[in-house]
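Sample entry (364 residues):
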Amino acid sequence: MKSKLIGISVSSDGRRAYLLRLLLLAMLLVIQKADRVQACSAVTSSANSLSLVAANYDWTARGGIVFESPRGQRKQSIRFHQDGATASWRSKYASLTVSQFGRDFPMQGLNEAGLMGVVLVAPADYPRQGPLGVIAEVSWLQYQLDQFATVEEVIAHAGDFGIEKVSAYLHWYLCDARHTCIIVEFERGQPVIHQLDPQGVRAATNSSFRASSEALRSWQSSGSEAVPHGYQSINRYIRLANRDSFAHEWQLVEAIDDVALQGFTAFQTIFDSQSKELRVRLPNSPWQTLGFDQRSIACTSKLEMYNLQTGVWESYDYATVDRLFADATDGAEDLTDERRRRILDATSVVDCDDEAYQSHWRGR
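Predicted structure, serialized as tokens:
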């Protein structure tokens, strides 16, 4: 028996084989898209005279915004699901963060004490409860930047919170002004801290630290001279690990360019804990440098935002943030329109309790 399929005469067995090939092709395209949108990478300079972290943020949405977060602000984590007390705190340090979600939900950031952090999608098993309540994973990095100056402090408090998944499973790459770097992961509901050897590999992609390290050792023991190509997480990690040196900033830029995926790298950053500056660029655009010496981030200030598309500081604009957030979360089942609205409403409020200062800028 034969049937017509797309103008070709095929037998039933041939038709089944053809449909199977189409199914496999569709699955491959889905896997490749997942690899592309989870292709974030981070790496640290190797020279003692430099304290730089360079990173790619790879996602389907274009653009990004740098947000001010002031000292002395009272904050509370956004939550949707879990029981238990909601995490709340008051910021000790000011920070500058880069995000597509809104202020206080950073993808990357630097505080005035020199603590730097990068968010990367990775396998995780978050704790449900913690002694200080529950915090959303999208707020976890902001809390560290608000509260701590050093990696040692982050380690000491890594188990303070349960973590509610609002958007994704993550691990976090953090370094401080003393050139100490760690990767924070959560396995079986417990924090797992990987302290990175100053003379070893100080990089992270989207695989767990254990999986990345094992893959690197396997590749090294194979004796292969061929460095893995492509943008799968392990391949990017091995390429970063295989570089001779990160003693100069241009070498860091060269490294993140090598693992950036054309069409999916939303922005690239370099954080400098000594100068307290961040350098950021959009694809095919020049670097833009921002620092704390250019800003006066007090809690009574009317906070501004730096739109990477326009290249200027401007008043907080709810509509601009909303458009970028919608693009970044398009297709995310957990982030409904109602939940996105709650997040944006929360991030457009600045609460400086002791000076009775509260400003809401929606619609202004």
